[in-house]
Amino acid sequence: MVRIAIVEDDKKYQEQINDYLLRYQKEFEVQIEISTFEDGTKIEENYRPVFDIILMDIEMPLMDGMTAAKRIRSVDSEVVIIFITNMAKYAIRGYEVHALDFVLKPINYFMFILKMDNAMKMVHRKEGKCLLLNLENGIKKLSTGDIYYIEVINHSLYYHTIEGVIRYWGTLKDIETQLEGVPFKRCNTCYLVNLKYVSGVLQNTVVVAGEKLQLSRSKKKEFMQAVANYIGGIK
Amino acid sequence: MEEYNYLQGINFMLQYLMACNIFIILLKKREHFWIRLIGAMVAGLVIAELLVVIFPFSTQTILPFLFWASLLIICIPYMWFCCYLSLSEAVYCAICGIVMQHFASEFCLLIKLIYGNTMWILIIYMLIYINTYVIFYHLFVKRLVENGKVDFKVKKSAFSLVTILLMVLILSVIKKNFYTNDTGILAIVCQIYDMSCCIFVLWVQVSQKEALHLQHELDLMDYTWHQQQDQFQLNQENIDIINRKCHDLKHQIGALHDMQNGAKKDAYIKRIEDAVMIYDSTVDTGNTALDTVIMEKSLFCKEHGITLSCIADGLKLGFMDIIDLYTVFGNALDNAIECVDKLKDSEKKVIIVKVFTKDDLMMIQVENYFDDEIMFVDNLPITTKAEKYFHGYGIKSIQYTINKYNGCITINTERQLFRLQILIPLQK
After folding, report:
1. Which strand (E) or helix (H) includes residue B233?
2. What average pLDDT does this structure show over B278-294?
3. Do B312 and B287 contact (CB within 8 A), yes or no?
4. Do B280 and A229 touch (CB under 8 A)?
5. Which of B302, B327, B309, B307 is nearest to B317 (CA)?
6. Mean pLDDT, rounded, of chain A
7. B-chain residues within 8 Å CB-CB of A109?
8. Cis peptide before A106 (omega within 30 of 0)
């Protein structure tokens, strides 16, 4: 179930977007729940992070979309925001609030669903997997989204995570199969990297959460393509 | 050279390594280069000397072959350790390096054959080596190494490289075995023979490389010519559009003069505004080169019923050369326009351009729907029709440009959606 908010003062567009979403839901067989707001103030007041995607008009009488988006961003860093506007010029400023994209009025259906599709991929990407690690002091539940990278030394795996390093028995090959469908990729024989935390690529190193890891020549091309597909929102 | 036999290992290794260094001068060096270079040189010299001490060789056995071969093999990791090279590139440089060394050493022997042992012989040898290396550097090495990289085709160079190995490692050793005591004219001819071979082999490498270059330039010129023609047509069309709009505007403003205030006048003003809107497609991405490309293509798109959506953080594109930006976006958009122009469903004629960054990674994305079959060769799309050669070339020239920035291209096609992605790491 994907929760979508439409923030739009113009009734005509409100209905059109609603229709498009219903059509999209039917064609692509996704479950959508739509909430509609007439103004920026309506959604921004008492905002709770329950939405996956917000479709936000920029020109609205009481509070414009940009201001509303800024306020929403300050409490919800996850939600995907797409602006709806008839002025292309506003688009550039969308970066200030990490907007994913903008849709230009009049709205073309195919343009709209293309952008919705990207937004959907972003939403689904946030759902990671959970690993259960049988540690000495009990079972540890580790969300894949919290892992920076996994390193293998001899026969031990070292999970470099947000909370620190966890040592565990296993091989990279096993963990690789366990992590199928989650964006992890090897950058050389002993590192399995969470693409989410890749912040740069230098000549022969990858920067992962501030650490530089060796990028092997034979894996470079494949790794770069995986990063491209991840950032581009394909996987 | 019997008089300084005890340092033979170091002596020959030094000659080889110096030849490698001639290449290293121009290659892209690794971090802590000087430490690596000196460390690797010392290690190489020690290993070579140990080899000689452990396996003292007489010229009558198989050992000399192995000795020369092991010197060559030391050169390969040596080059790899100091510079950013792949294994095959290191092998290539090392082999070309030993040709230089071989030429110099044969030259020395030639002098010795002609003049015999004089008291100046060591100084003459030194001069020969230095001059050979310097001259070869200017004649060959400079042309083989470009932008810190050696660019060679394994298939094309393999034959020459094998020839070199045969000459240096086997033929010349056999020759030395036969002619050690012969100082006659045949020995001199042999030396000259050998030296000419060295020059010839390197010259073949250089000319091969230049031929490759020429071919590429020719392709590029061919492509540019075709693009200029398209450009001309596009400009013509743009001028027509603007002329037509201006003509309309003139009439509308004329009509406005004679009109009373009121709803009708407002409607008229609205229409004029709409007409002027063709210039509202003015994009402001923060990068003038990108603005120009988008602007130019969007006029064309408007006229052909194509919706072009662009969200670009142009400020981040400042590191790219204007010509490169033009090549990348021009080609990518031409590609997309050509694709969607053929679609029957006019609603589907949409193109989305996105430029954004995630930390130190920049992403350029162009998406559009497509209809016809796309075939892939080397992970790059080609189209079935012969005329589309230029279209395929467009992607090639993007790839060529992106390589300069260490970027990578990916192309995905799913559900009739064509997605070109370019990832470029940003340098801090």
Report:
1. helix B185-257
2. 73
3. yes
4. no
5. B327
6. 87
7. 347
8. yes
CATH superfamily of A2-126: Response regulator (3.40.50.2300)
**Which neighbouring-strand residues pair with A12?**
none
Distances (CA, A) of A177 to A172, A182, A183, A185, B255: 9, 10, 12, 11, 73
Distance to chain B for A103, nearest Cα, Å = 8
Q: Which residues of B touch A232 (CB under 8 A)?
A: 363, 365, 410, 419, 421, 423
**Closest residue, chain A, to B410 (C-alpha):** A225
Residue type, B327: T
* Structural tokens at position B402: 């992106």
- Chain B residues near residue A95 by CB distance under 8 angstroms: 313, 356
Is the model's pLDDT at A44 over the cut of 50?
yes
Instruction: Report the pLDDT value the prediction gives residue A117, as an integer from 0 to 100.
Output: 87
Which superfamily is assigned to A137-231 in CATH?
LytTr DNA-binding domain (2.40.50.1020)
Spatial distance between the Cα atoms of A130 and A144, rounded to a whole number of angstroms:
6
Query: Position of tokens 């142009």?
Result: B314
Q: Do B347 and A204 touch (CB under 8 A)?
A: no
DSSP state of B261: S
Token pair listed for B156: 């094309």
Tokens for B241? 């559009």
Which residues lie across from B357 on neighbouring strands? B362
Of B90, B89, B93, B98, residue with least CA distance to B69: B98
pLDDT digits (tens, 9 = 90+) for B243-273: 777 777 777 777 777 777 777 777 777 777 7
Q: By C-alpha distance, which of B96, B152, B104 is closest to B127?
A: B104
A2-126 and A137-231, same CATH topology: no
Interface pTM, i.e. ipTM: 0.84
Q: How far is A204 from chain B (nearest CA, A)?
A: 9
The single-letter code of the amino acid at A218 is S
Q: How far is A90 from chain B, CA to nearest CA, in Å? A: 9
- For residue A101, the chain B residues in CB contact (below 8 A) are 309, 311, 352, 354
Question: How many other CB atoms are found less than 10 A from the CB of residue A67?
Answer: 16
Residues of A in contact with B367 (CB under 8 A): 114
Side chain identity at residue A30, one-letter code: V
Rounded to an integer, what distance in angstroms lies between the CA atom of residue A45 and that of residue A36?
14
Which residues from B are below 8 Å from A227, CB to CB?
A: 361, 423
pTM of the entire structure?
0.65
Query: What string of DSSP letters covers B181-204?
Result: S--SHHHHHHHHHHHHHHHHHHHH
Best residue in B410, B415, B417, B428 to probe A by mutation, most A CBs within 10 Å?
A: B410
- Contact of A80 with A103, CB cutoff 8 Å: no
CB of B20 closer than 8 Å to CB of B94: yes
Q: Map out the domains of chain A as residue ranges.
A: 2-126, 137-231
Q: Maximum distance among all alpha carbons in chain A? A: 64
Instruction: Please state, in angstroms and rounded to a whole number, the distance separating the CA atoms of residues B82 and B35.
Output: 9
CA distances from B146 to A6, B22, B25, B106, B210 (A): 56, 14, 12, 29, 11
Across A175-184, B43-52, B283-292, least confident range: B283-292
When CB atoms are compared, the residue of A102, A111, A207 closest to B350 is A111
For residue B423, the cross-strand partners are: B363, B408
B20 neighbors B73 (Cβ within 8 angstroms): no
Residues B408, A114: C-beta atoms closer than 8 Å = no
Residues 6+ apart with CB under 8 A from A177: none
- How is residue A111 written in tokens? 């343009």
The residues facing B302 across adjacent strands are none
